[in-house]
Amino acid sequence: MAQTEDMGINFHTRKWVKPEDLNANGTLFGGSLLRWIDEEAAIYAIIQLGNYRVVTKFISEINFEASAQQGDLIEMGLIATHFGRTSLTMRAVVRNMITRRTILTIDRIVFVNVDEEGRPTPHGYSSITYNRDRMPTEHPQTGTIRTV
Ligand SMILES: CC(C)(COP(=O)(O)OP(=O)(O)OC[C@H]1O[C@@H](n2cnc3c(N)ncnc32)[C@H](O)[C@@H]1OP(=O)(O)O)[C@@H](O)C(=O)NCCC(=O)NCCS
């Protein structure tokens, strides 16, 4: 594992590998991991682009470098690598919290910022925020405006 690969990445989310997350081999099921990463990437994109309406467009080659066992603690990290006009590209790393071994890397996860009709729409951002200054205030399901 190259520590330099992880530079700049914040590992926000931790998971405990449970029986329902295992494959037939008794190790972490790749599908569970991808579900967690897709959700993590969606939340990251919402925070960066200030819009609840973001959709997964593209996931590049996924390299499962090591496995995890039941009871292991893993952590997931994401960092934005490119702000496009309507898209955001992220890099993902998942690692074992105890051994620090990298379990998986994904070089490019692309999310697209869409409007009410599901059409790509410019997000207007070009750099990462480390704060909560872009949090959307309007919820897409309810239309509620939350000020607090
Ligand atoms: C996301 C969606 C609206 C984009 O529509 P589209 O016609 O491809 O839109 P565009 O060609 O205008 O591309 C939009 C952005 O995506 C990027 N993009 C398109 N195809 C891409 C690909 N294969 N890889 C990486 N980026 C891609 C474009 O470069 C563009 O980014 P930019 O504006 O920052 O330059 C449409 O493909 C869609 O609805 N897909 C389903 C999304 C979904 O439901 N995801 C959940 C998984 S089921």
From TrEMBL:
Residue ranges annotated for the HotDog ACOT-type domain, each copy included: 7-117
Locate the region Disordered: 123-148
Instruction: List the keywords (alphabetical).
Output: Hydrolase
One GO biological-process annotation of the entry reads: acyl-CoA metabolic process
Kindly state one GO CC term assigned in the UniProt record: cytosol
Q: Where is the composition biased (Polar residues)?
A: 139-148
Q: Which GO terms describe its molecular function?
A: long-chain fatty acyl-CoA hydrolase activity
Among CDD domains, the record links this protein to: BFIT_BACH (cd03442)
The family assignment reads: Belongs to the acyl coenzyme A hydrolase family.
User: What is the name listed in the Swiss-Prot or TrEMBL entry for this protein?
Assistant: Acyl-CoA thioesterase
